[in-house]
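@channel sequence for tomorrow's demo:
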Amino acid sequence: MSETASQAVQSTIRELVDANHILFDQGVVDGFGHVSVRHPERPERFLLSRSMAPALVTEQDVLEFDLDGNGVVPNSPAGYLERFIHGEIYRKRQDVMSVVHSHSPSVVPFSVVTGARLRPVCHMCGFLSEKGTPIFEIRDFAGPGSDLLITSGKLGAALADSLGEGPAVLMRGHGSTVVGSTLRQAVFRAVYTEIGARLQMEAMRLGPVTYLTEEETIGTTKTISTQYDRSWFLWLKAAERRSMAN
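structure tokens (generated this afternoon):
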């Protein structure tokens, strides 16, 4: 990014770096996965790190992209292969300000087991659809022999269509993509999508599960939407402690 970037852009970049570190510390991403944020001054662009492990991202690694996934600055470092996830969702969803793509381990089984739909089991993951989180089947768009990655605008647009107007979409045999109206909301949702999947699997082992009703998902989501900072600053402190320890 330019050294003359505005204060708003610089602040957004710093928070994006924090988001990368939080997602790693919370076990949502490892060496793979990525988080982006819509540019605060140019809504037809977004900010995303160069291709690297999220835990290692610094402010100097953040790049600016257009919605086609092209780096704005000539000769920029290589971007993530799946940057098209971000650009196409921002193109389709004007309400989305941040996108998280991950392979969080408890979520993946729900993308491949027929009849096991990811649904909200507790108030912290009430943002998940009570009807079940949609699943993107890449075979419908790339055939039976793809690498499962979203490496083109065409596939990114298909994923965005599967996401629809919801907060999350699973990707069969791959992971999930979660969105938010703010960066902190997207990070919160990514963390609690993983936690919710873990809780649901544990509950299913015990017997029939009582899921949240549609009315409960609305009520819990409204209440939790006022509390994102509480988790954000706790998670940030934990990530900073881990970094200092290493």
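heads up for whoever presents: The domain at 7-237 is CATH 3.40.225.10 (L-fuculose-1-phosphate Aldolase).
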